[in-house]
Amino acid sequence: MTASIIDIDDLTVAYERRPAVHHASGSFPVGSLTAIVGPNGAGKSTLLKTIVGLMAPSTGRIVRHDLPRRAIAYLPQQAEIDRSFPITVFDTVALGLWNEIGLWGQIAGAGWRRVADALAHVGLEGFGRQPIAALSAGQFQRVLFARLLLQDAKLILLDEPFAAIDERTTEDLLAIIRQWHAEGRTVIAVLHDMDQVRQHFPQTLLLARETIGWGPTVEVLTADALRRARTLAQGWSNGHHHHAEHAA
After folding, report:
1. Are residues 49 and 160 both part of a single domain?
2. pTM attached to this predicted model
3. Are residues 22 and 61 in the same domain?
4. Do 161 and 54 fall within a single domain?
5. How many domains does the chain have?
6. pLDDT per residue over 135-180, tens digit each?
7. Are 224 and 139 in a shared domain?
8. End-to-end CA distance of the chain
9. Residue 98 included in any domain
10. Do the beta carbons of residue 42 and residue 209 sit within 8 Å?
């Protein structure tokens, strides 16, 4: 048995008093590469936020196995990030060094080089002085990945990292995710492109508020399981919250 980095134990998380995640249980093994998929409103983002500690469980718990908060890197959906903030590409990436130097610490020469190297790694050499507001969605996501590179985290959580991103950027960022996986880091990503998941993610958690399937991608993403997830989602959109409320 591989050791797990995160255990989810009978977890229910309510969002605006409705269960967004309902009695979910399972484990993310150390060094695993897992996609979280499921219909809209299935609790995928909520689960990530609860793992990070931004949301609290209603019942059940998340066991982080002595993983300090700074060992976890979290990339929210791009829509949740304010890009009008007047900050340069360089300074945005340099935020990845916070854990090491503290908020007001000075970035020494080695730190400057690491920021420059991270920008080169994501294909944005020479972009350091640009304001983030001037970037395309794909360029901005490259910047955020460069920042993750500097965080040196054991656990990396990505919420829809490829939403509204061009194909070339997606390929480049998938290569970075593969590199993290090869380095033994644990990566969990919320995704909705099933072909992408089948091609690049060995493990999948299929979530429809409750766990429909969790394990090797080929075993989880069956036509039957996806149909079950869709059927559950139709129940929520028709306003059948009664069962969930009752069960909670």
Report:
1. yes
2. 0.90
3. yes
4. yes
5. 2
6. 999 999 999 999 999 998 999 999 999 998 999 999 999 999 999 9
7. no
8. 32
9. yes
10. yes
